[in-house]
Fold this sequence. Notes:
single chain; alpha/beta; globular
Amino acid sequence: MASGRLLGFCGSLREGSYNRKLLREAVRIYDPADYAEADLRLPLYDGDLEAATGIPDAVQRLADQIAAADAVVISGPEYNKALSGVLKNALDWVSRTKGSPWRDKPVAIMAATGGRAGGERTQWTLRLCLTPFRPRLLTGPEVLVGNCSDQFDESGRLVNARYEATLTELMGELRKEVGRG
């Protein structure tokens, strides 16, 4: 049953990243009527750049996508025990735009990593970074896909029934949260 507008964020720029695969599995399960994947290839945040030229068009486009979405799902890798610089940079830039696009937005987060913890610290640091924007951040279930190179088949589908069940539950919770809005 397709419904709503979903915006996806992948914290890895690599097309074949496991977080992109996880994100696409979340989208498949959520089944939105409209889906867009955010382009996080943004310039590094620089106050001098902002002062000289204002908010870059790509950043404003991202903020507008967040504002227009019914919900956002974020999948991010763990780099050096924290969220990726790509995600942090996007959050920093969007924080500079007008209109508080994250405010009251239902947001689900997940992670896929090569280690056994599955991105637990990514999620923890991402929650800290999102909190000031006051989204309706789902607290769970936590989708932490560890040893990710063994968790997807050749077509990008999850092969672990436990991870798929947890992801299905999270997407169900996100749908419920959208309905409360």
